[in-house]
């Protein structure tokens, strides 16, 4: 090690980096010792002085504001304030062989969940065989009778899945959640990559990083593959609740990059069981709808009658097979966190295979033994409501005050079906640039992956959204809860080609 | 024995301000089942649009209309000719009480009838109100109990259209002690389900006899599943069994699945609605002697 490098290690952006003793750091195996896969990258970053790096970081931030990539937080006091999703220029690297295994496991999981949804809305074999308790499904508010006996094209319900993974201190990946209600985050993956290349093109080029830019075309191809029978050149659209939705940027971005229309409910109507889009050239038939509107608001005729976001008659057109909805309504019972505990059994039941990816040990408060355990050990557990998303309503036992613990005990007792608990997982940590400190510190990360299932096609994006809990010691990575993100580099295995 | 009916449903709506865009869905057409056959059905309305049909999740017809042409008045009329066969009204049960019990407790039975066993907004009965209700005795056959329940609810409530509305829950109805056919039916359903008997909401038309004058509206009653007998209709509003005079349009878990008319309109002002139904038995050639 030459003198300059030694100096950079102490005074540069990596100066005073404290490798966490009780967690897995993906970059450093011990204090000052870098894992081999990060060596090349680390030495690039060592060259930056604090000032240089601050400038680089500002440059990347500007790129996001300029691209208009913002979101809003629903619980914000200043409603409607647009924020950028903090982006960290130091990427996360996943090796080709490690990724290949993940990809297999994710596909296995998504395919099994799709068969599960199909079975539940038709024959219910898995319930009759007592693999999954019927009560658990029928009591889910996301189980929709409006979906009974509907046959979506090619039998696909969860066209788009966002499987959340974490890396535990044992070095293994675990599935934290299955998100199959039109998960968001993909626009950050794509724009993070753009910002990364703008800021650090030379560094980027030194690595064999898998591309992510094909995602919009893959999504479009997936939508086209499930067009109603007999439609040759399907008209696909993205249906958004509108500009006030926190993910509106993503809806617009996907429509733009796929080259399809972005529509709101009021732009569509149903006549004679076909869906039409109002255009200046008159009505245009719509064949496939990527809908980013929640089930309850999709069609005031079938669901919430007060919805002004949806399209009256849409479910009728869907039942008649004249339009495809991506994802199908009513998938939410299957990514319910209480059903999560059964996913390994679901995989074995439908595919006759052992699950490739692990589940996190989960306690269902509905079960008497589990309920008792949760009440007694709450300070060591993460308690989550089963049907919320976005990190809302979560209690982390080790961080909670006595009052909060007491309050949650009461909440759980009142509605046991609604809560599950998991051991506090040691999410791996990753070197993350902390503004204000002007240096890198370890922060917890997870990984949201993106999977597409279409007719005779399966696709997992080689990359994903590495979400970072920016608050020191925090485990909650959701963008709505003060999380940030990193570009995720899946290294190409060129030897396999 | 068979009877032929002419069933008419009509509605007339006027709007203070023009309606710029509208979507209406009707669930009013008599259905086809073991006891009724639809011989013809006709729709007439004043919108510049053609009606279209799809099935609802329970397999019943939904008739819809869409228009983006402004209007201030909307008339709609459905006329159906229905041939009704007298339903089989049981006098006893083919199964023993123990056999009935075994059938009701079977897991597959629960899965097959889950939509009619759970309770929701309309049919959930608060714990504190359950003491006042009628429960099945251990040795009582299911059918006997349901007949008794039908009478019990008929006596428990007083018919009164004033205090309730389309969103009234069973718990409210118990406290009020009054309501309309929708409320009687939800109460029957709620109690039957507490007894683990699958029970569903049926909507349709009741022939009240040729002498009836004035306006009638659509009717609602309950259908309960009796092991060994299948679905049987009970009308707690009138303490009747669903016989030849009941012409069914649809069934579902509760009113929410059967509401005769739903609409989404773009308009600003208020509106006036009138609606009614008529049911006329028509003489059937060759059937009179049967």
UniProtKB/TrEMBL annotation, chain B:
The Transglutaminase-like domain extends over 173-238
What SMART domains does its record include?
TGc (SM00460)
Q: What is this protein called?
A: Transglutaminase family protein
Organism annotation: Rufibacter immobilis
């Amino acid at each position: 090690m030459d003198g300059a490098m030694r100096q950079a290690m102490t005074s540069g952006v990596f100066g005073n980096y404290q490798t966490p003793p009780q967690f897995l750091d993906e970059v450093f195996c011990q204090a000052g010792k870098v894992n081999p896969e990060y060596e090349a990258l680390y030495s690039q970053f060592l060259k930056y002085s604090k000032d240089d790096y601050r400038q680089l970081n500002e440059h990347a931030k500007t790129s996001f504001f300029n691209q208009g990539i913002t979101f809003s937080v629903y619980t914000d006091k200043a409603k409607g304030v647009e924020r950028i999703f903090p982006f960290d220029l130091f990427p996360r690297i996943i090796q080709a062989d490690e990724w290949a295994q993940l990809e297999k496991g994710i596909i296995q999981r998504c395919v099994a969940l799709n068969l599960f949804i199909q079975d539940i809305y038709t024959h219910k074999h898995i319930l009759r065989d007592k693999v999954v308790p019927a009560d658990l499904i029928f009591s889910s508010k996301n189980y929709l009778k409006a979906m009974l006996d509907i046959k979506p094209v090619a039998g696909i319900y969860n066209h788009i899945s966002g499987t959340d993974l974490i890396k535990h201190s044992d070095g293994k990946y675990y599935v934290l959640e299955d998100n199959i209600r039109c998960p968001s985050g993909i626009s950050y993956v794509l724009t993070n990559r753009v910002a990364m290349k703008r800021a650090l093109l030379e560094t980027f080029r030194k690595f064999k990083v898998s591309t992510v830019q094909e995602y919009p075309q893959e999504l479009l191809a997936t939508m086209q593959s499930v067009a109603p029978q007999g439609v040759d050149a399907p008209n696909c659209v993205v249906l958004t609740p509108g500009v006030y939705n926190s993910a509106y940027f993503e809806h617009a971005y996907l429509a733009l990059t796929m080259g399809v229309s972005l529509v709101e409910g009021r732009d569509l109507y149903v006549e004679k069981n076909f869906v039409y889009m109002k255009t200046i050239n008159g009505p245009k038939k719509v064949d496939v709808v990527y809908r980013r509107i929640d089930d309850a608001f999709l069609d005031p005729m079938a669901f919430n009658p007060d919805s002004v976001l949806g399209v009256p008659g849409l479910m009728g057109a869907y039942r008649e097979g004249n339009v495809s909805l991506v994802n199908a309504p009513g998938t939410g019972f299957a990514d319910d966190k209480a059903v999560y505990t059964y996913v390994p059994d679901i995989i074995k039941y439908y595919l006759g295979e052992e699950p490739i990816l692990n589940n996190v040990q989960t306690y269902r408060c509905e079960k008497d033994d589990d309920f008792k355990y949760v009440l007694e050990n709450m300070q060591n557990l993460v308690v989550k409501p089963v049907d919320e998303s976005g990190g809302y309503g979560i209690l982390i036992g080790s961080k909670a005050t006595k009052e909060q613990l007491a309050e949650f005990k009461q909440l759980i007792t009142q509605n046991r079906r609604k809560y599950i608990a998991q051991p506090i997982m040691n999410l791996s940590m990753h070197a993350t640039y902390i503004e204000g400190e002007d240096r890198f510190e370890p922060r917890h990360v997870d990984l949201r992956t993106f999977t597409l299932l279409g007719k005779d096609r399966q696709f997992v994006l080689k990359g994903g959204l590495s979400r970072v809990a920016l608050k020191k010691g925090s485990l909650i990575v959701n963008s709505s809860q003060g999380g940030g993100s990193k570009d995720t580099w899946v290294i190409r295995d060129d030897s396999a080609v | 024995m068979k009877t032929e009916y002419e069933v008419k449903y009509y509605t007339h709506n006027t709007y203070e301000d023009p309606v710029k865009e509208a979507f209406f869905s009707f669930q009013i057409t008599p259905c086809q089942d073991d006891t009724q056959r639809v011989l013809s059905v006709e729709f007439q309305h004043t919108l510049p649009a053609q009606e279209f049909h799809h099935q609802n999740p329970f397999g019943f017809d939904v008739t819809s209309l869409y228009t983006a042409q402004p209007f201030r008045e909307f008339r709609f009329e459905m006329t159906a000719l229905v041939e009704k066969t007298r339903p089989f009204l049981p006098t006893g049960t083919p199964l023993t009480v123990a056999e009935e019990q075994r059938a009701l407790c079977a897991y597959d039975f629960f899965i097959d009838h889950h939509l009619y066993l759970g309770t929701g907004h309309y049919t959930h009965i608060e714990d504190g109100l359950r003491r006042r209700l009628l429960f099945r005795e251990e040795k009582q056959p299911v059918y006997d109990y349901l007949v008794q329940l039908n009478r019990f609810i008929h006596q428990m409530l007083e018919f009164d259209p004033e205090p309730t509305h389309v969103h009234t829950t069973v718990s409210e109805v118990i406290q009020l002690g009054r309501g309309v056919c929708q409320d009687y039916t939800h109460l029957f359903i709620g109690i039957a389900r507490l007894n683990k008997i699958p029970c569903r909401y049926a909507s349709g038309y009741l022939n009240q006899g040729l002498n009836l004058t004035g306006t009638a509206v659509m009717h609602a009653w309950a259908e309960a599943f009796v092991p060994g007998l299948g679905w049987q209709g009970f009308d707690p509003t009138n303490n009747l069994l669903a016989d030849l005079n009941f012409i069914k349009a649809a069934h579902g878990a509760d009113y929410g699945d059967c509401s005769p008319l739903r609409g989404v309109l773009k308009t600003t002002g208020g509106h006036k609605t009138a609606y009614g139904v008529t049911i006329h038995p028509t003489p059937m050639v060759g059937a009179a002697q049967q």
